[in-house]
Specification:
2 copies of one chain form a homodimer. By secondary structure, chain A is α+β, with helices and mostly antiparallel strands. Chain A contains 6 helices and 14 strands. The longest helix of chain A has 24 residues, at about 85-110.
């Protein structure tokens, strides 16, 4: 399992991924899930992956070394060629399909799921950042303002805080805090999600460079945020009036 | 899907269940999932069920009309006979096994899962309330103070708030608010969980009567709690300092 989150806000794109990978609870490792696919003059593209590690590494390998074009194996396309993020998502979808047909089929023969999904975010040319969710069949959807975030992997524990707070107008700093709280919830409830976390922030404004950072297992800001949140939740719960029927119960 | 929560606190037992049942998103109904199995002078026992409705209704029918004893079909045991909650959990476990062997096997032949699980809570005699989680195989575990709650059904969305706030010393009123917030999160994120909610509160103190209540689809207290929580989460997020690296980003 793993947990990856992408948010597409007016102010910019945020992507975060944990690094835990496991084959059972007795075989746990740390692998980077957030990858820079391109950081050129005209394009800046990142991918976060969840699912079978051998499948997602195959997808990344294909994108790096070339996705075959039809039946002519000498014609290869890389992530440096698409002229839009939509075309880039199509190329990643093709790589996912190829990985599923090869690695996925082999894994299916021993009854292991090779399914994997990818968050693809970035910008090509002068357009604003965009964000895509590529499913294990290679089909994909684009993030739109109605729900300005995508999750893959262990999505449920970290979802309620997102549903209640994230809108397109949320600032990057606010969204980053909420993203950390979403990860903190997932980490507390599922051993298969863990720090370090890798993140990338790509502001929408022209000329702003993307910013990457790794949040380590003993990051003091994250530890402080987690501790404060517990206290703040207690205070918030206390601020809500008691259910009216509890008075009736005490009266018995 | 459905969501049921049981909390075993120093002050008493709380059980809550939603009422949604569905076969696909285009076949949705409302069924009571929290049932009073016994309300006698010497025992007060409640069950909340999640999973296939035909299986759980069979379990409840067996407990009401009699669970067969071995091969002699004239010997039937009901929930009114066990002399402890442990023995009651064993009887419910047997009923679950029988339902799985009959209804469950028939459903398996058409590739539908008949799996169901049960929260069993209550008290027999003068002992304090206790709480059991009975799995679909009929085996069960008892709630203990290390984690003073059990969830069945759609458990993940509503879990983080429980992990962060519920301890054995939490008051009944506080626990009830947290339980409602846990349900509110689940209802917002999953169409397969919905009001009305049924609840029972059984105080530990001697002589206190259990209290039952249905929270309707337009319950004003629940609506107010849900609205306040959104605002309180915004305030709490704002009260956490911004990540230090965001200043660095703005400096670019």
């Amino acid at each position: 399992m793993t947990y990856c989150l992408g948010m597409l806000l007016d102010a910019g794109l945020i992507m975060i991924a944990d690094t835990r990978t496991n084959a059972g609870v007795d075989d746990i490792s740390s692998y980077r899930k957030l990858h820079c696919l391109a950081d050129d003059k005209d394009r800046c593209i990142y991918a976060a992956s969840a699912g079978n590690l051998s499948t997602t590494q195959t997808v990344l390998g294909l994108l790096r070394e070339g996705v075959p074009t039809g039946e002519d194996e000498s014609l290869m396309r890389t992530i440096h060629e698409p002229t839009s993020m939509f075309r880039a998502a199509q190329l990643v979808g093709e790589a996912v399909q190829i990985a599923n047909e090869t690695v996925g089929r082999a894994l299916a023969s021993i009854k292991i799921s090779g399914a994997s999904s990818i968050l693809l975010g970035g910008r090509i040319g002068k357009g604003p950042p965009s964000l895509y969710l590529i499913y294990s069949a290679g089909n994909f959807i684009e993030c739109k303002p109605d729900v300005p975030f995508f999750q893959i992997g262990e999505t449920k524990y970290g979802r309620p805080i997102l549903d209640r707070t994230i809108t397109p107008s949320t600032s990057l700093a606010e969204a980053m805090k909420v993203a950390f709280l979403s990860f903190d919830s997932s980490i507390r409830s599922n051993l298969a999600v863990a720090r370090p976390l890798d993140l990338i922030v790509m502001p929408t404004r022209a000329g702003a460079k993307p910013f990457t950072r790794r949040i380590g297992v003993d990051d003091p800001y994250f530890d402080d945020l987690s501790a404060r949140w517990g206290d703040l939740l207690h205070d918030a719960t206390a601020a809500i009036p008691d259910p009216p029927f509890m008075a009736e119960l005490n009266g018995h």
